[in-house]
Design a protein that fits this description.
single chain, Rossmann fold
């Protein structure tokens, strides 16, 4: 488990860029945090780090955006409007969360986990990454006007 303190949106963006350098096919980055904690800003940094030129916005109403013009394909998913694993599966998003072709960044990932996840807690059995897959769970918390505590833990390969 690692902790990063971001003092600005630019620092959150830069963290996403650094993580993009670690990116590999099949990696899921599950983002958990309240509105305004920097989830989309982190995804914007991931996209920039992958060399994606598209504008990245939160796909709240579309559920997902696919970006194929970078070093790896990036799927950006927003689960805010879905309440449970069964709704996520019914929406046809399960394969993006369990075996993405490239990298998947998923906002409101706690909807897939079935509730609030806190760093240091085990993953529910139904949310374990498949063999050969990796999951980075990221918890973002507001600690001031621009200060964010970003804690992440890696699971799987």
């Amino acid at each position: 488990m690692d902790t990063f303190i971001s003092n600005s949106p630019e620092e959150t963006f830069a963290l996403g860029q650094r993580w993009a350098a670690e990116g590999r096919p099949g990696w899921v980055i599950g983002l958990i945090g309240d509105l305004g904690t920097g989830k989309t800003q982190l995804v914007k940094g991931l996209a920039a780090g992958l060399g994606i030129a598209d504008t990245v916005t939160s796909p709240t109403f579309a559920l997902l955006q696919e970006h194929d013009d970078g070093a790896l394909p990036l799927v950006h998913i927003d689960l805010y409007r879905l309440e449970s694993q069964s709704e996520i599966i019914s929406a046809g998003l399960e394969h993006y969360l369990t075996a993405p072709v490239g990298l998947a960044a998923v906002e409101w990932f706690e909807r897939w986990l079935g509730g609030e996840w806190q760093p240091g807690q085990p993953l529910p059995e139904s949310s374990q990454p498949a063999a050969g897959q990796a999951l980075r769970l990221v918890h973002l918390a507001d600690e001031g006007e621009t200060k964010r505590r970003i804690v992440h833990e890696d699971f799987g390969d």
